[in-house]
Amino acid sequence: MSRKKLAEILGEIPEDGVKYHLEKLKEEGKIERVGGTRGEWKILKN
User: Considering the entire predicted model, what is its pTM?
Assistant: First the structure.
């Protein structure tokens, strides 16, 4: 799902906000990117 589509579904968060939160989750080691530009996010277990 694209950031744009996710922002549309969430309604109150703009696309840049979705990007911010994804980056924050990535930095915290909670998610990782699998694949390239058209890849997906994988949720990591702690």
Answer: 0.78
Q: Which domain holds residue 22?
A: 3-43
State the Cα–Cα distance between residues 39 and 46, nearest whole angstrom. Answer: 22
Cα angle, residue 16 at apex, residues 13 and 20 outer, rounded to 5°: 90
Looking at residue 36, what is its pLDDT? 84
Q: Which helix (H) or strand (E) holds 42?
A: strand 40-43
Cα 20 from Cα 7, distance rounded (Å): 12
Q: How many domains does the chain have?
A: 1
Both structure tokens of 23: 């980056």
Residue 13, C-beta contacts closer than 8 angstroms, at least 6 positions apart: 7, 21
